[in-house]
Design a protein that fits this description.
The protein is of the alpha+beta class. The chain is built from 3 helices and 7 strands, in the order αβαββββββα. Helix content is about 25%, strand content about 15%. Strand 4 and strand 5 form a beta hairpin. The N terminus is likely disordered.
Length: about 220
């Protein structure tokens, strides 16, 4: 199965290299890391282990393309996968293998020397789980404190004075003092005929008095 995948991807790479033209950017001397020349580094399995050990990519699939051209044009990625590494092998020594992480289709990558072979590695695209919407609790409305109504002062009626029941004074039963009539003194003697009457009365009283006195004296003898 690995050989079938390798042949298919080799054909894709060859077709992309013919049609890409000047698309993409040249990554000459802009590699991410370098690995020295070894016989193991010439094999695709070496780079699968390298990605698992150094970049935590355990499900990568790598294949080798002999030649590839200078610069090398990255082909379209496989269905449901993405390129995670492209390695350009050129010459020998400590800088023999240049690694380019996460290349994209159409990118042009190269070494300072003529390309010997290319290693391409892809990994499945993981669908990010759609976050399940959580029902946010309906916020409980905060009760608003209504202002306490101020009591309206009531006008108290002016108290009416209570009439005091004063006792009615009882009348004292005291005998009414009658004035004692004194002798009537006629100071003014009217003139005319009345004066004669008064004189006559006075004479009559005098005579009566003399008579009474004479009888008292005769009785004594």
């Amino acid at each position: 199965m690995r050989s079938t995948l390798t042949r298919s991807l080799t054909a894709v790479v060859a077709g992309a290299a013919l049609t890409a033209g000047a698309a993409g950017l040249a990554f000459a001397d802009s590699h991410d890391f370098a690995v020295p020349h070894t016989s193991e580094a010439n094999q695709a399995a070496f780079w699968e282990a390298y990605l698992a050990d150094n970049h935590d990519i355990a499900d990568a699939t790598c294949f080798k393309i002999d030649g590839g051209g200078t610069p090398f044009t990255v082909p379209a990625q496989p269905t449901d996968a993405a390129w995670v590494l492209a390695v350009i092998k050129a010459g020998a020594g400590a800088e023999a293998n240049w690694g380019f992480l996460n290349p994209e289709a159409g990118d042009k990558i190269s070494h300072t020397k003529e390309t010997s072979h290319v290693i391409l590695c892809s990994a499945p695209v993981k669908d990010e789980p759609t976050p399940t919407p959580t029902d946010e609790p309906t916020p409980t409305p905060t009760p608003t404190e209504e202002p306490t109504p101020k009591p309206t002062p009531t006008e108290e009626p002016t108290p009416k004075p209570t009439p005091s029941d004063e006792p009615t004074p009882k009348p004292t039963d005291k005998p009414t003092t009658k004035p004692t009539p004194g002798p009537v003194v006629e100071t003014d003697i009217p003139g005319g005929g009345n004066q004669t009457g008064l004189i006559a009365g006075a004479l009559a009283l005098a005579g009566a008095g003399a008579y009474t006195l004479a009888r008292r004296r005769g009785a004594q003898h």
